Amino acid sequence: MDLTWYLSLSAVLFTIGVLGVLLRRNVIVVFLSIELMLNAVNLTLVAFSQAFGDVDGQILVFFVMSVAAAEAAVGLAIVIAMFRNKLTINVDELRLFRG
Amino acid sequence: MELLVQLILLPPIVIAGLNGVMGLFWPAWRKQEWLLGGLALAAVAVPFAVTCLLFFGFEAAEVVRYFTWLQAGDLRVDFAYRIDELSLLMTMIVTGVGSLIHLYSIGYMHGDDGYWRFFAYLNLFIFAMLNLVLAESLPVLFLGWEGVGLCSYLLIGFWYTDLKNSAAANKAFIVNRVGDFAFLLAMFIIFKTVVDAQGGVFGLDFATLLAPETLALFAGPTGFWVTVLLLIGATGKSAQIPLFVWLPDAMAGPTPVSALIHAATMVTSGLYLLARLSPLVLNSGALWIIATVGALTAIMAATVAITQNDIKKVLAYSTVSQLGYMFLAAGVGAFFVAIFHVMTHAFFKACLFLGSGSVIHSMHHVEHELEHKGLIPPHHGPGSHDTPLDSEATQNTLRHSPLPYDGPFDAQDMRTMGGLRKFMPITAITFGLSTLAIAGLPPLAGFFSKDEILFRVFEFGQSAHIGYMALWVVGLITAVLTAIYMTRAYLLTFEGSPRWPDSMDTHPHESPWTMTVPLVVLAGLAVVGGFLGLPPVFEDIGLPGSWIHGWLVGHGDHLGPVADSLDPLWASVSPYYEGEHHVSHAVEWALLGLGAVVALVGIGAAVYYFRFGKRGPEADRKARKVFGLFYTPASHVWGWDQFYNATFVKGTVEGARKVFAPFDKNVVDGGVMGLAGLVRRAASGLRGVQTGVVQTYALAIVVGVVAVVALVLFV
């Protein structure tokens, strides 16, 4: 199995994640897309680790996963706080910082 | 000597500063009228005492130098002052008459809110005037010149809350400025001429300027134009044609100001300038211009004075006319006679103005009483600004106004005076004596000085140029007119029966001693002042001749500071000297007699016409009908104000409105506002970037990453 295949899959997943962040209106879906991006990166790291026989890649994956978990927890807490105030999870309507 | 000159110059400015600063920052000071006024009076009386000391102990001219004022290249001007016969005489007049007027003002300005400001300005004026007359160089003289102009502005517009007064002050300053510009040009030419020819450092000081080598530089057209420019400057300050229009308006200021500045001192600055530079003026070839301007101004102003109803306006035009006499004297090279007339004029004109102030003061009291009794509508305070339907004009016509003129009661209008001699005897007698003096009745002061002027014009006409005889005739006619209008003023004010409403019960009263003492002193001087300049022919009958001639022009082999066109002492300087005694003694005596007759004719004519005061304004109305063609334009100052208004004033205002206002609005304001608008629009545009939606920012990040990766991969 070629390394290229894994990297391509990873790139595609990452791109799908980016597009989801930029284009979806549901805040939960945006978070989902962010997780997708992170997991795409994890896949890249594992693929390289397997290809070069270096276990450092897999160690980094653990870091990424823990950060992703913490970030998801905090992010969802913010979403709940926003929802309590504005009763919406539409990103387009969260623009208190509008200039 | 340095100390003495400091004692003359410094007290006025120090006390002015003291009164000004204390009055400005410490309200309690403003109420101490006696302290304030006393200090101010001392600030002028001390210099007077010192001047007398210097005068009676005078031996030779001296110059005191203090420190350098300007230094740049060839120009170096020091603060230097000259003590000589001319400056001492002028300083005596300024400080002497000034002291009397300060004393008068203590009484006159009593109760005024700006009492402290008044005395501060008055002392500042004295300081500037002293700088003017004591200066050793033209720039220091000009400093004083400008200073008196400033003080004139400040004092005319003293009651600045009334816009009319401010307008009059502006007029005085702006018209003066025209003259000042000419004066500056003259100074520039003088500087250039001397430095180009002689090299070295020059400060336009009189010692260098009036030395024969320097004077020779001004023999031709240069001297002519310098003199013409100086004359224009003098016409501004001394109110001659064409720059006299400010003086009648200047009567808006308090009467002591009119007396001091616009009669006795500031307006004589032009004459002083010409006298100080007399050797230069004598050789300029421009004397005929000076004489003509003087004569024409004298007669024109006299014709206007006859038609005026406001007592101060009569005196204002009288001043213009008398100044014309002084210029006429200067124009025949008799500068010392001009200064002699300056002196006698200071005495009787100050007395006349202060007397009129005394009258006006009393008439104000009458006005208040009448308002209190409800006989005239209130001019100030509640009830004075009613709706148009109740305006003065309608009230006057509907209610058969008690006043013979439109508008509110005017304390200065002679039509509501009359018979004041019974109520104000001291004022009446002093005013009367000064009237006789100015009319030229012997042996009062005006007779000797005016007669000397006319005699010198006659003599010059006989010896130098026959054209001057025309000016002599003009001078004679003006003398008759002077006697007529002054006698008219006296009769309308003090004789006859009172013409104000309710005159049986509302009486004016004499002024306090602070006001009457100066009147008496000045009237006394107006009576005896002429003896300082007795005609030369008096020597034939054993009386002393002209002291002032000896003092100013020189005697024996001592040369004074003032040149004389027909005096043997100045024969080498004067191009008009052709030997002694051009006019026989018999003719001189005849001319003296003629002068007396002229005065008597004028006084008598007025006394007869007004039936010694029994006929008042009706006589004026009759005169207007008879002399209509001449009376009406005269009462409108021969259209001078209208002419200036239509041309310069309107021109400037319209020009500003049509050219400068749009420029200011469109270019200047447009530029600044446009720049602000530009910034606002740019900011508004840039603000669009901040949408507040996080996804936009995420997009920006992604775009950035893509760009950087592309750069790294393909560049």
From TrEMBL, chain A:
It catalyses: a quinone + NADH + 5 H(+)(in) = a quinol + NAD(+) + 4 H(+)(out). It is an enzyme of class 7 (translocase). GO terms for molecular function: NADH dehydrogenase (quinone) (non-electrogenic) activity; quinone binding. Its EC number is 7.1.1.-. One of its GO terms (cellular component) is plasma membrane. Keywords: Cell membrane, Membrane, NAD, Quinone, Translocase, Transmembrane, Transmembrane helix, Transport, Ubiquinone. NDH-1 is composed of 14 different subunits. Subunits NuoA, H, J, K, L, M, N constitute the membrane sector of the complex. Belongs to the complex I subunit 4L family. This is NADH-quinone oxidoreductase subunit K. It comes from Rubrivirga marina. The lineage of its organism: Bacteria, Pseudomonadati, Rhodothermota, Rhodothermia, Rhodothermales.
